[in-house]
Amino acid sequence: SDPAGGVVTALAELARAHRAESPGLDPVAIGISVPGLVDERAGIGVFASNLGWRDAPIRALAERAMGLPVAFGHDVRAAGDAEHRLGAARGYGDVVVLAIGTGIAGALVLDGRPYAGGGFAGELGHSLADPLGERCACGAVGCLETIASAGAIARRYTAASGTRVSGARDVLAAATAGDPIAKRVWNDAVEALAEELARLVATLAPEAVIIGGGLAEAGPALFGPLEARLDALLSFHRRPALVHAELGDDAGLLGTALAARDLAASRSVEGTQ
Question: Which residues are CB-contacts of 133 (< 8 A; sequence separation ≥ 6)?
């Protein structure tokens, strides 16, 4: 089967349905963002383990299927761009945007510009957190997201306690109620996140770290101990503001729309020259 072709075909059908519902609208560009490793410049989905493609020419396939120019990108970098232009990262030139949910993904903005590193940058969930830890779905051992993602918190608690939970929120509730296993699992996650942020601070010196995704919904129960632990790890470093993301689940959608709008604007400028 061709998973990328299937996705593009489904998107083309969706686009046709939207156009039929809005006869007065005349779209001039389309935005598509996907997870995994993405080469925005080449328009290629390099690798997506959960969607099953490798080196898929998604932009070319989509432009052929839809007959419009396509702005193609990475879902979390699109969300980071939206937070930078419209949300919690406005006003910062050097920012890290972290999405902590079933996994952990990041987007970097340096000197006011998104930094993609050929599609490989921002994979903070797959930086080393524990060399003696568990094997990650990516194949490496001890990745940050095996300890600190919302999915990992629930999984680690179930493994240690034998009690099934629906998510990290249940683990936090148990920790707050005094459950020692829940406390340990939660604290391990906070510690691993703080250590990762400390490394980022020493390497990139961001002015702010924007945190979104399901885990950020814990609010002060996450941000309070995370700030305290990060403070304890830093000395002379530039201390970043830790800020809750503003745009929620719509961030990726908004960033993808911004990319399409930028593409349309650049095409119209080229057309007038």
Answer: 141, 142, 143, 146, 147
109 pairs with which residues across the strands? 95, 114
Residue carrying the six token digits 């020493």: 202
Q: Is the dihedral of CA 236, 231, 108, 132 positive or negative?
A: positive
pLDDT band at 156 (very low <50, low <70, confident <90, very high): very high
Please give the sequence-ordered ranges of beta strands (E in DSSP) within 88-152, or none if there are none: 95-100, 104-110, 113-115
Q: Tell me: the pLDDT tens digits for 19-28?
A: 899 989 889 9
Dihedral sign (CA 195, 200, 201, 207): negative
Q: What pTM was computed for the model?
A: 0.90
Q: Is 23 helix (H, G, I), strand (E, B) or coil?
A: coil
User: What SS3 class is residue 178?
Assistant: coil
pLDDT of residue 272: 67
Q: Which residues contact 106 (CB under 8 A, 6 or more apart)?
A: 76, 80, 96, 97, 98, 99, 122, 123, 124, 125
Residue 259: its H or E element = helix 251-272
Q: Which residues contact 9 (CB under 8 A, 6 or more apart)?
A: 65
At 68, give phi and psi (nearest 5°): -135, 155
Question: Residue 272 and residue 157: Cα distance in Å, rounded?
Answer: 60
